Amino acid sequence: MATEIKVPVLPESVSDATIATWHKKVGDAVARDENIVDLETDKVVLEVPSTVEGVIKELKFAEGDTVTSQQVLAVIEEGAAPAKSADAPKDEGKAKAAEVEAAREEGPSVAKKPEASAPPQAASSTGDLPPGARFTALTQGIDPSQVEGTGRRGAVTKEDLVNYASGKTPGVSGGARPEERVPMTRIRKRIAERLMQSKDSIAMLTSFNEVNLGKVMALRKQLGEQFQKDHGIKLGFMSFFAKAAANALAKYPVVNASVDGDDIIYHGYADISIAVSTDRGLVTPVLRNVERMGFADVEKQIAEYATKARDGKLALDDLQGGTFTITNGGTFGSLMSTPIVNPPQSAILGMHAIKERAIVENGQVIAAPMMYIALSYDHRIIDGKDAVLFLVDIKNQLENPHRMLLGL
């Protein structure tokens, strides 16, 4: 019985998808729930599994084609087995036997290198080379006709071949200058569109502050082992920032608002998007209702999203919504940056690298683990006063984490 495999139902915000990779071809056996094809959307890569066990009978689209919801991707013949040629093993055995017999007839005195070690082009064009250059061309598998000669009358020398093999170009400092043109992925194109939308439609401004994370680090050191023992997850920095942001958003609701035409929408909940870097680009899965989550809940959800992002398993629902974003450039060593607001949100908090710096505390110069934090915001609805007070509130919470834990 033939079974059709269709494109999953896509949400309203995603109109179509692109065939990224076929993992099966016509005639291949496929197991139930085995991934057949990857579909790339503007936000995530979707895996389409087989609903039955059988053999691929037909593929309706090629890689790079665009598809929409419920279009038929492939047809599987349920319960069929892949066809195998009974003569193939026999033919292979005969070929190997012929090779062995030919080698026996040549005798043991003939010692030849495998042909793969020297491409035919290189071997056929080395006759006019000096012995040293000829040996280099053969051992390196270089076609001398592709090498620019610097010797007498343009002759190719051994040095030319060595430089060619190491990627150096005569007369050009810094070695070879390769170029490669590849099309943007749908996710990368979508990221570009969103960034330009933010630039063109938002009156964006960034405010900065710095935070002494000494007490947070001491608290993690003091309670981290017990926290991991009780909850099965490490106590990281992101949960402190997420909880501090949720508390500050409750005090300054305009930072948690968004613009819709001539209206301002105030959100009575903190759905915080956490920026996660992947091989395909930046994604922002959403922590829902952070104001009601505990530290362990936040850490577990972030760890789950990080794993799904690395494995390409994020679902569209994981990325939908979000009223505020936190991004951590410090993971890659960034000391300071101006993060870009993700519309329709109105603000984004940037974390950065923790560096020991000299500060003055109670009249004494001490070394403390400091972090610059940045808030980029939509100045159309958020005044500088609210943005600065929001950052100061986060700073005060992180520098007094015991008060944050008590909800003060």
Summary, kept brief:
The chain has 11 helices and 19 strands. It has helices at 87-106, 120-124, 131-140, 158-165, 186-201, 214-231, 238-251, 295-310, 316-319, 384-399, 401-405, and strands spanning 2-6, 17-22, 29-30, 35-40, 45-49, 54-59, 66-67, 72-78, 204-212, 258-260, 263-265, 272-274, 276-278, 281-283, 286-287, 324-328, 347-351, 355-361, 364-378.
What is the rounded Rg?
31 Å
Q: Could you name the CATH class of the largest domain? A: Alpha Beta
| Total number of beta strands | 19
User: What would the average pLDDT be, to the nearest integer?
Assistant: 83
Helix content: 25-40%
The shape, in one word, is globular
* Strand content bin: 15-25%
List the helices and strands in order. EEEEEEEEHHHHHEHHEEEEEEHHEEEEHH
Major beta-sheet overview: 7 strands, mixed
CATH architecture annotation name of the largest domain: 2-Layer Sandwich
Number of domains: 3
Question: Helix count, per DSSP?
Answer: 11
Which secondary-structure class do the elements indicate? alpha+beta
Amino- and carboxy-terminal Cα gap: 65 Å
CATH topology of the largest domain: Chloramphenicol Acetyltransferase
Low-confidence stretches: 102-124
- Give the name of the CATH superfamily of the largest domain: Chloramphenicol acetyltransferase-like domain
